[in-house]
Amino acid sequence: MEINTKMFDGYADKYDQWFLTNNKVFESELKLLHACLNPLKKDKILSVGCGSGLFESALKSEYGINVEHGLEPSTDMAEIAEKRGVKVEIGDAETTQLKDEEYDIIYLNGCSTYIADLGKAYKNCYNALKKGGHLILLDVPVESAYGILYSFANYADGYDEKLFSRLAPALPYPIELVKSGIF
Question: pLDDT digits over 133-183, tens only?
Fold first, then answer.
């Protein structure tokens, strides 16, 4: 299976801009991720689908949690994450050969929506966890407010101003990324 490195290529700036413009969403997700990580042993953490390293950088600066390792299929995103201090391996959760029992924590923050074979991806991650390690899955449920918004935008083929004027945030998530998700 070929890694889809192109899915997020060309969207790295839009991805970061979306979170920075919709900063309450970013802060909320960051606090949720911190709450999941905080009580756990954090010697070696892997962020699967680390994107641009925006969350990893914020975890370090705001909470002192150092996420040194990332797995990311997009070369554009990985390049930015590297600049933010994450050692990124280009690959995906389904096909990248992760070393057995390597990590205390592996988390997928919002990337499960873009994985075709979740069973294979999760098993790969599980095998890479040390005994007693933790697999953390954070994502947008289809029945959540954003899940419904994305499903509707996908159905409507975009964020039509008339339909979405009172529903969508000022800067909606790029429709191309919504369309490539598996909800």
Answer: 999 999 988 899 989 999 999 999 999 888 888 888 888 888 888 888 887
Return the residue matching tokens 């797995």.
71
d(C-alpha 13, C-alpha 6), whole Å: 14
Q: Long-range CB contacts (< 8 A, 24+ apart) of 29-32?
A: 29/55, 29/109, 29/110, 29/138, 30/55, 30/58, 30/59, 30/62, 32/138
CA 173 to chain centre: 13
Tally of CB atoms within 10 A around 73: 25
Q: How many CB atoms lie within 10 A of CB 2?
A: 6
Do 76 and 82 contact (CB within 8 A), yes or no? no
At 53-89, the pLDDT tens digits run: 999 999 999 999 999 999 999 999 999 999 999 999 9
